[in-house]
């Protein structure tokens, strides 16, 4: 991507958040986002196939921009909880974006499917690093825990702070040493 193309994509992702906060998910269109970004609608469609694709890209960019946690001295459970809290709070202060991300990521747009896989791999990577193992069963359980909790947050059943707190409680129980309870 050229510098000009990267700038256009950056402007579109920033404008998407602005339009979402003003118009809500149902009122957001590529046309409105393009106008807010100062580009033509056709140009916006050159980069994003749908509003779901654009919103998913916003989340992806924020996720990969998050700094890795520096908790190397902490135990694995504490590191996992920190990762889950960090990811679950990524859009917590922006309710319109948070709800839109949930809706967008559930879409069937092939470009969204591609981003959904990249997002899943990034979260899996962060959890595996925090856990210190690539135990597929533990990682799968943590991913299910995370995705289920975030879905409840996206549907408005829980606040994102409640999601983060619930993730902590569940992760600590799930990762507790079974010998501790004996």
From TrEMBL:
The HTH tetR-type domain extends over 6-66
Instruction: Please provide the record's keywords in A-Z order.
Output: DNA-binding, Transcription, Transcription regulation
Recorded hits in InterPro entries, A to Z, give: DNA-bd_HTH_TetR-type_CS, Homeodomain-like_sf, HTH-type_TetR-like_transc_reg, HTH_TetR
Keyword field contains Lyase = no
Alphabetized Gene3D superfamilies for the sequence: Tetracycline Repressor, domain 2
Looking at the UniProt feature table, which residue ranges are given for the DNA-binding region? 29-48
Can you say what this protein is called? TetR family transcriptional regulator
């Amino acid at each position: 991507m050229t510098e000009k193309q990267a700038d256009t994509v950056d402007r579109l992702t920033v404008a998407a958040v602005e339009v979402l906060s003003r118009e809500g998910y149902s009122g957001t269109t590529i046309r409105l986002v393009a106008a807010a970004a100062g580009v033509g609608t056709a140009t916006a469609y050159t980069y994003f196939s749908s509003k779901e694709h654009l919103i998913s890209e916003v989340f992806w960019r924020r996720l990969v921009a998050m700094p890795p946690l520096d908790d190397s001295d902490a135990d694995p459970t504490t590191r996992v909880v920190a990762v889950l809290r960090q990811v679950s709070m990524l859009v917590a202060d922006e309710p319109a974006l948070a709800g839109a991300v949930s809706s967008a990521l559930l879409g069937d747009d092939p470009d969204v499917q591609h981003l959904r896989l990249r997002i899943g791999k990034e979260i899996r990577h962060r959890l595996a690093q925090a856990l210190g193992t690539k135990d597929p069963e533990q990682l799968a359980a943590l991913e299910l825990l995370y995705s289920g909790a975030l879905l409840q947050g996206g549907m408005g059943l829980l606040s994102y702070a409640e999601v983060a707190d619930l993730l902590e409680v569940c992760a600590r129980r799930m990762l507790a040493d079974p010998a501790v309870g004996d």
